[in-house]
Design a protein that fits this description.
This protein has 262 residues and is an alpha/beta fold. It is built from eleven helices and eleven strands. The protein is elongated, with a radius of gyration of 21 Å.
Length: 262
């Protein structure tokens, strides 16, 4: 993580397209925000995040590029797309591997020409933004399989930042957990007992930082007395989640064998 921080501080001031690679829940969006906040674009534009996995394919073009009034059925008003909103700032495309192939080509054209044309428009609009992309997929394999454009991949693959999963950096677990305990409910400013810290280090956290955050918050909300979080508080959260996962597995949604419930 110290190496990642150093790399982040090196690339942030330079207007380079960046690819952030890491499993779900490792905090790729936080790294992207940090790059924007350490760059000159902090004062010239916004940080605009688009989660590609959450956008309906038939609406993606409109969301990304915008549209003119009457461009299609239901377009009763014009809409400014995310690319134009990011003008002067940073456009963060989270899970870019889910971007449809046809829109990959249009995005590449925007990057090359620094112009965007909203759906239904007849003129291009000049645009200037920094692209940061993130993925939890193997984009190189997707390129080889014809699922991701090689020319788009080459635009940002030269400057990758890798976020290791939490199970490979156990030394960060306690610091992160203490941070969440202090900040999730500031009035309580909770602390973790030594036994609670030892229990956390024993977990694998397949959901990474997000899973750790949810575990600490749930323990504070439902079980912890006062401002101290004990190992028993955390175990009760884990036990409850195991019970729910067991019900899901009996319904046909079986968990991957050997995985931790957190």
């Amino acid at each position: 993580m110290q190496e990642l921080r150093q790399d982040l501080e090196r690339v942030a001031p330079h207007d380079l397209p960046i690819l952030i690679v890491g499993e779900t829940g490792t905090g790729k969006n936080l790294v992207a925000k940090a790059i924007h906040e350490l760059s000159p674009r902090l004062t010239t534009g916004k940080f605009v995040e688009v989660v590609c996995a959450n956008v309906e394919a038939n609406l993606f073009g409109s969301d990304l590029f915008g549209h003119e009034k009457g461009a299609f059925t239901g377009a009763v008003d014009g809409k400014q797309g995310m690319i134009l909103i990011a003008d002067g700032g940073t456009l963060f495309l989270d899970e870019i591997g889910d971007l449809p192939l046809d829109l990959q080509g249009k995005l590449l054209q925007v990057l090359q020409e620094k112009k965007v044309r909203p759906v239904g428009a007849v003129k291009d609009i000049q645009v200037d933004f920094r692209l940061i992309a993130a993925t939890n997929k193997n984009l190189k394999r997707m390129v080889d399989e014809g699922k991701f454009r090689k020319d788009l991949y080459s635009r940002f693959s030269d400057f990758p930042l890798l976020i290791p999963p939490l199970r490979d950096r156990k030394e960060d677990v306690i610091a992160l957990a203490q941070h969440f305990a202090r900040t999730k409910h500031p009035k309580r400013k909770a602390t973790l007992t030594a036994e609670a810290q030892a229990f956390l280090v024993s977990l694998d956290f397949p959901d990474n930082v997000r899973g750790l955050e949810k575990l600490v918050e749930a323990a504070m909300l439902f079980y912890a007395k006062g401002s101290e979080i004990t190992a028993q508080d955390l175990m009760q959260v884990v036990g409850k989640k195991r019970s729910i996962d067991s019900l899901e597995s009996h319904s046909g949604n079986s968990r991957k064998a050997g995985s931790s419930p957190i």
